[in-house]
Amino acid sequence: MAQHFVALGYQENWWSILTAPFMRNAVLGGTIVALAAGLIGYFIVVRRTAFAAHALAHIGLPGATGAVLIGLPVTFGLGVFCIGGALVIGYLGKRAAEREVITGTVLSFAMGLGLFFNSLATKSSSTMTNVLFGNLLAISYDQLLTFGALLVVLALCIGFVFRPLLFSSVNPALAEAKGVPLRPLSIIFMALLGVTVMMAVQAVGTLLLFALVVTPAASAIMLSPRPGRAMSISGVISVVSVWAGLVVSAMFDVPPSFVIVTIACAVWLVVWLGDRRQRTIARVLDDGAPAMRGPALSDPAKVSTSTATP
């Protein structure tokens, strides 16, 4: 019985594909999404809301299928469910322990609702595929305008609440004692996260979203402890992953979402291995430091004897 394997074929006309109008839209749209992910990703890692980010992508799935069911744009359905679910999680889950339970409950209800909507719809199979795996090459000009406006709003909001949000993310107990409003900040942050997830789902899909929104930020935090620098590094990693992913997809005719995620994960692995090696070396040096000081410094009696001898 013959077996057939899929081969990656080099496309000689990849430059003409890369300069096509639909690919320009993909580059612009992917860049906007990557910048948004770089802005919000740092706080996702610091606030330990990676599960919420992953859950919001799946919470948007019933919104997409519901929108198809009633004849509305898929982006509208994604936005309503992503932002609506984020607001519920942000309002009810002020602390991390509460947030995990709330997120799981909202996710379960949303997935059940999505299954119900999918059973009613007859033309949602392609929509389900695009939402699950993304379709960066299908971003339209109108979506670019929407993404650009949302990126500006996201940047302005994060700039406005940056200091109290960072304080409440690093030390929520002390921030609350100092009078920082944790619940309003949680709601604002989750709403901004919902906006970012809504955009990122259309680029890489719900199943691969984690790698674009969270993984570059995790890499950046290992490279720099400073929030501003880490956010910048995260944005650069996300943008480079998107650009390189689109180039490789044009050259070898592979899904861009797969390549984007692979590059982001590869960067994280390299950074993680380097960080682990550096920590191991530092620990070895710390363990060997007392032995390197010598007996004169470790024995005060010998030091006093030697200094008292004429």
Describe the model.
By secondary structure, this protein is mainly α. The protein has a single domain, classed as Orthogonal Bundle (ABC transporter involved in vitamin B12 uptake, BtuC), CATH 1.10.3470. It is 82% helix and 0% strand. It contains 15 helices and no strands. Helix 3 runs antiparallel to helix 6. The radius of gyration is 24 Å and the shape is globular.
Give a short synopsis of this structure.
This protein has one domain: ABC transporter involved in vitamin B12 uptake, BtuC, CATH 1.10.3470.10. Helices cover 82% and strands 0% of the residues. The protein has helices spanning 14-18, 21-46, 50-70, 74-92, 96-120, 125-133, 141-170, 172-177, 182-204, 209-213, 215-223, 227-252, 256-293, 295-298, 300-308.
Write a concise keyword list for the protein shown above.
82% helix, disordered C terminus, disordered N terminus, single chain, globular, mainly alpha, 310 residues, ABC transporter involved in vitamin B12 uptake, BtuC
SSE inventory with pairings:
Layout: H1 14-18, H2 21-46, H3 50-70, H4 74-92, H5 96-120, H6 125-133, H7 141-170, H8 172-177, H9 182-204, H10 209-213, H11 215-223, H12 227-252, H13 256-293, H14 295-298, H15 300-308
Helix pairs in contact: 2-7, 2-9, 2-11, 2-12, 3-4, 3-5, 3-6, 3-9, 4-5, 4-9, 6-9, 7-9, 11-12, 11-13, 12-13
